[in-house]
Specification:
Blueprint (H helix, E strand, L loop, with lengths): L19 H9 L14 E6 L5 H10 L4 E6 L6 H4 L1 H19 L2
Parallel strand pairs: 1-2
């Protein structure tokens, strides 16, 4: 599996290390604990098939109530979805379709 870390995504002063106190805080944090409360607002998660972070999107979709959808962009990493037209274009098309369907009055 390719790494999502890419030279183009790192700032010149970015610290690549961990602050020791962060480990405990991260272990206790659950960003999806209340995701069911988003409903009935539509939830669309887009992930690259090669993204190391894709499991977060799958977990969110599993826990969320309808309407929800997970779109996987084949071949993309997490960072690719920021700036590579071959991946951004289909992601934007999915955004347009999903929210056009679910937010249109």
């Amino acid at each position: 599996m390719r790494s999502d870390r890419a030279e183009r995504s790192e700032g010149p002063r970015a610290n690549q290390g961990w602050v020791l106190r962060s480990v405990d805080l991260l272990a206790q944090y659950d960003s999806y604990a209340m995701i069911r409360l988003i409903s009935p607002r539509p939830l669309l998660m887009i992930a690259g098939s090669e993204a190391e972070s894709a499991y977060f999107s799958r977990e969110a979709i599993e826990k969320a109530a309808e309407p929800k959808e997970l779109v996987v962009i084949d071949g993309a990493t997490h960072i690719d979805l920021y700036d590579k037209d071959e991946y951004v274009t289909p992601a934007v098309a999915q955004l347009t379709e999903f929210f056009g369907k679910h937010l249109a009055g």
